[in-house]
Specification:
single chain, 213 residues, alpha+beta, Thiol Ester Dehydrase, Chain A, two-stranded antiparallel sheet, 4 helices, binds Palmitoyl-CoA
Length: 213
């Protein structure tokens, strides 16, 4: 049996052979952005039942148009500057994934991964606040980027979260993560989300383990 690393390498190589130039990426990112807007309005619309039925039929026809062109495989991932992985289909950062907020991440010279973002109603948990699983997803991903930027990438083996106070929806949030310790194949990363008032709403310690090949 091959390990997770070998399996991932095979997927990376297959996806790398796809032709995703920047013009195509921009076009698909635009489509994803429109679908995101549509998704939010599905949750928020006050349209009456007959109008909802008409729109549902139109969306079905649009989906069929894309399906007629055939199904490919998800876009690949590239490692960019500072070890940041550009993963276009990521559910967190992927510009081509309508489920992604998407958040943008930068890494400062000291290895801290940072992001500023707003999470709308699609990510609601308790009324008016962000779902705890979504906060976990953001911190997991940001921590993964910090581990990667540290030159010690890995799979999340553990994510220990503390929800300090509710994370508000629809307002600017920020988050940061930094690798604090490396022990062999393990990288420990600390991360946190801050509300608009600068107070921590959620914080985590994650351990990333580089799988054996
Ligand atoms: C290579 C990857 C490429 C990534 C490209 C970069 C992309 C960067 C940008 C994207 C960022 C995405 C960020 C999201 C990342 C996910 O979402 S990953 C998906 C979720 N995670 C998974 O599916 C992982 C599933 N688990 C596994 O595959 C395996 O259990 C693991 C994690 C690879 C470990 O397997 P293993 O090497 O057989 O584990 P094992 O030998 O038992 O343990 C190794 C060491 O880790 C320790 N350990 C294991 N678990 C824990 C824990 N929870 N706490 C503390 N220590 C632990 C063990 O005690 C052991 O320590 P030592 O005895 O060596 O001191």
């Amino acid at each position: 049996m091959t390990g997770a690393w070998t399996a991932m390498q095979r997927v990376f190589e297959e996806r790398d052979r796809q032709d995703f130039d920047e013009v195509r990426i921009a076009g698909l990112a635009e489509l994803a952005a429109r679908v995101r807007e549509l998704s939010e309005l599905v949750v928020l619309t006050r349209a009456d039942q007959s109008e909802v039925a008409v729109v549902a039929r139109e969306v079905e026809l649009l989906t069929r148009r894309l399906a007629e062109a055939g199904r490919g495989i998800p876009p690949g991932a590239q490692v960019g500057e500072g070890g940041i992985v550009r993963q276009l289909g990521s559910p967190v950062t992927g510009a081509l994934n309508p489920l992604a907020p998407p958040i943008e991440i930068s890494v400062s010279p000291d290895g801290t991964a940072r992001s500023e973002f707003t999470l709308g109603v699609l990510y609601e948990g308790p009324p008016g606040f962000v779902h705890g699983g979504v906060s976990a997803m953001v911190l997991d991903h940001l921590s993964g980027v910090a581990a990667s930027a540290n030159g010690t990438p890995g799979m999340t083996a553990g994510l220990d979260l503390r929800y300090r106070r509710p994370t508000p929806l629809g307002v600017p949030l920020s988050a940061e993560a930094k690798a604090v310790r490396v022990e062999g194949r393990k990288t420990f990363v600390e991360s946190r989300i801050l509300g608009p008032d600068g107070r921590v709403t959620a914080e985590a310690t994650a351990v990333f383990v580089m799988p054996t090949r």
